[in-house]
Amino acid sequence: METHVEGETVRVGHTGREQFYDARGYGHPVDGELSLSRVETAHLLYRGDIDSVDGMGFREFLATEDGLASRFLVYKDLRDRGFYLTPAREAWVDDPDGIDFVVYPRGDGPWDDTVAYRVRVVAERDPVPAADLGDVVLAVVDEESELTYLETSRPEVSGTAAEPPEHGTDAVLLDDRAVVWEPPERLHAAAFYGQPLDDDRTAVQLSLVEGAYLAAQGVLSFPGGRESVLELGRDAEGDRFDRRLAVYTALRTSGVVPKTGFKFGAEFRTYADISSVEELGHSERLVRVLPTDHTFAPRDLSLDIRLAHGVRKEMVFAFTDGIGHEPDASADVEWLSVQRLTP
Amino acid sequence: METHVEGETVRVGHTGREQFYDARGYGHPVDGELSLSRVETAHLLYRGDIDSVDGMGFREFLATEDGLASRFLVYKDLRDRGFYLTPAREAWVDDPDGIDFVVYPRGDGPWDDTVAYRVRVVAERDPVPAADLGDVVLAVVDEESELTYLETSRPEVSGTAAEPPEHGTDAVLLDDRAVVWEPPERLHAAAFYGQPLDDDRTAVQLSLVEGAYLAAQGVLSFPGGRESVLELGRDAEGDRFDRRLAVYTALRTSGVVPKTGFKFGAEFRTYADISSVEELGHSERLVRVLPTDHTFAPRDLSLDIRLAHGVRKEMVFAFTDGIGHEPDASADVEWLSVQRLTP
Questions:
Q1: Which residue of A has its CA nearest to B193?
Q2: Which of 112-141 (B) contact A at CB < 8 A?
Q3: Quick one: pLDDT band at residue A231, thresholds 50, 70, 90?
Q4: pLDDT tens profile A48-80
Q5: Least C-beta-crowded within 10 Å: which of A241, B55, B121, B180?
Q6: Residues of chain A found within 8 Å of residue B181, distances taken between Cβ atoms
Q7: Is A75 a catalytic residue?
Q8: Is the CB of A295 inside 8 Å of chain B's CB atoms?
Q9: Confidence check: pLDDT of B288 > 90
Q10: Record: contact A302-B262, CB cut-off 8 A
Q11: A133 and A268 assigned to the same domain
Q12: Mean of pLDDT over chain B
């Protein structure tokens, strides 16, 4: 079969269209002929369906473009899994920006108006701006050419947690925590703020984030006011404290209870439905707080997602610049869920 | 009972010595009297064994020193778990540097010459220099005052992996990987280098670290020589590539097989005993590669250790400056194992 490279495209004639597009979903038909992308061409060369392109076999052809080998591995893997897919190019697919492939549901192909996944191929070392995620599947090619698929989406954040307890309880700062020596019972037992100093004592210890939130709500009064809590938090953590407080506030405002995620290496673990501490279930999500302009390293993403998966929680990233951590400004947080996917 | 503060020490008289030291292992006896540290005093106040010190009750006393509240929580927790422990001070314990407490085996006390744990208390936000670890237990107090114990030690790194295969096989670079189109069978099957491009193909893909190591060993020949592999690796990763290569080399030299740890967010997972790929067992360790002057954030440590625990692997940190990545310089790597501990 006659094939030759024209810029980004490999052209094959009428026979190719029947054999490759009509029968197996390769390429994009133009005027009765067929245009193939390089990655599709590499796959046809690999399979032996095409012998050579302009004199090049599979090995030589794979080296003709930067990144082609990684894209080939993902293309081949998805084909091996029984999918048809189309390289994302203007006029070939809708909305090709930011992705490499449109993958059709199994059994469907480019002639159907259906989409299973929008896939972006990244190498293990490629930085991935958070702003690019939310509606794509990342196909990460690691340094040993193994593949990991990560599905990104925008989660709903809402729960049914109780309102904070009555106002005006005295609290103090002690090192880097807040302590309420004589707390109202609901503070911990119903609303799950802080934790008791001991099983048989009434005193409740709270994190500075909990303390700052409850001070803003008027629930706790500190000798130095709410500012003294913010000051201590910022001394220890800088802007990160404001970001965490913004996310904490957004979660509580949505009826979700955040508790420390330290044991999981995250900022928070969250409970959407709590009626009392005695009936505390399993926390559903881990939340990592990041600045809005954050760029992920795929390895860090992999670490978070693997851990969350292992403890049966959903990994959620919360992006905020920390401005507007007052309770009425919770809309300044954006949420991103990332989960492993087996296509 | 008469008690009063003298600098860092709280003094109680002869009765106190019998009641607190002889019977329950508090403090350090001096001339028939007893010296108590602040954290011990806080615990005795908390229990009601002492009513007040210079007019202060438990709440007031706990605020008299920075960090006392965190140390108190750890001291109390270890006491609750049935241990006697002594604050680390010159003349009170051997080698008090870098730790807060010496914990005795259950049933033993300060009058015995035994040690169960040497404990260092850190708050969640305290940076922990890697150089301080290796023979201590970290007691991390998180922002909600929950405790996590992390045991640090120096692991043995050795295995029985096969020698590299015969010399002089041709390899090429393709994007950010190496490919051996016609590999000797032992390359992957016996020595577990790289991975096959496909189940029914002979071609083997290798990471750049594997490629650089095998080029140094004379096993692989690249058109641009070993330097071309190093150059590509350094372009992508900078110094990190040299550090990873140094650790890879040290592991292989010790008979251990490193493979990518990407799915676990680590640099490598390792196999100590491999006779063939068919009988590949479970990898035993995850290895994270860090510069020698690295300082840990406790939360990052917690993330790594929690993940490793969840997948039943040991978390090992490898410290190197990346100088001396030639195979004969493997001694430049220091190893640190960190595991969760329930005292």
A1: A144
A2: 123-125, 140
A3: very high
A4: 999 999 999 999 999 999 999 999 999 999 999
A5: B55
A6: 59
A7: no
A8: no
A9: yes
A10: yes
A11: no
A12: 92
Q: Read off the tokens for A68.
A: 């082609």
Report chain A residues whose CB lies below 8 A from the CB of B70: 175-176
Single out the catalytic residue among B14, B282, B309, B325. B282
CB A28 within 8 A of CB A35: yes
Q: Are residues A55 and A87 in the same domain?
A: no
Domain limits at A195?
169-341
Q: Which long-range contacts (CB under 8 A, 24 or more apart) does A145-148 make?
A: A145/A70, A145/A73, A145/B177, A145/B195, A145/B197, A145/B205, A146/B195, A146/B260, A146/B262, A146/B263, A147/A73, A147/A74, A147/A77, A148/A302, A148/A340, A148/B262, A148/B263
Q: Choose the closest CB to A125 out of B205, B236, B265.
A: B236
Give, in order, the Cα–Cα distances in Å from A175 to each of A178, A233, A262, A267, B148. 8, 11, 18, 20, 18
Which amino acid is located at B96 in the chain? P
Q: What is the pLDDT of residue A323?
A: 62
Q: How many A×B Cβ pairs under 8 Å?
A: 147
Catalytic residue chosen out of the listed positions B43, B259, B313, B325: B313
Which segments of B83-205 does DSSP mark as H helices, in order?
186-189
pLDDT at residue B326, rounded to an integer: 54
Assign residue B56 the CATH number of its domain: 3.40.1170.20
pLDDT tier at A236, thresholds 50, 70, 90: confident
Query: Within this chain, do residues A197 and A305 fall inside the same structural domain, yes or no?
Result: yes
Instruction: Exactly one of A149, A193, A213, A271 is catalytic; name it.
Output: A271
A259 is catalytic: no
| Residue that finishes a domain, picked among A14, A38, A65 | A65
User: Per-residue pLDDT averaged across A13-29, rounded?
Assistant: 91
Q: Is B64 on the interface with A (CB under 8 A)?
A: no
Among this protein's residues, is B76 annotated catalytic? no
- What's the pLDDT score for residue A325? 47
Same domain? For B298 and B275 the reply is yes
The reply to whether B158 falls in a domain is: no
Beta bridge partners of A268: A260, A287
Show which of B49, B64, B79 is a domain's final residue.
B64
pLDDT higher than threshold 90 for residue B307: yes
Which residue in the set B210, B237, B265 is minimally distant from A125, CB to CB?
Answer: B237
Q: Does B66 touch chain A (CB under 8 A)?
A: yes
Q: Helix B225-237 crosses helix B239-253 at what angle (to 10 degrees)? A: 120
Average pLDDT over residues A22-33: 92
Across the interface, do B262 and A236 touch by the CB < 8 Å criterion?
A: no
Same domain, A10 and A77: no
> Are B78 and B138 in a shared domain?
yes
| Single-letter residue type at A85 | L
Structure ipTM: 0.91
Does B124 contact A62 at a Cβ distance shorter than 8 Å? no
Residue A270 and residue A188 share a domain? yes
Query: What are A163-217's pLDDT values in tens digits?
Result: 777 788 999 999 899 999 999 988 888 888 999 988 767 899 999 999 999 999 9
- Cα B141 to Cα B302: distance, rounded to the nearest angstrom: 12
Put simply, whether A98 touches B (Cβ < 8 Å) is no
- Interface with chain B: mutation pick from A229, A262, A287, A338, highest number of B CBs within 10 Å: A262
Residue A137's nearest CA partner among A98, A110, A84 is A98
Count of domains observed in chain A: 3
Assess A146–B contact: CB distance below 8 Å, yes or no.
yes
Same domain, B175 and B299: yes
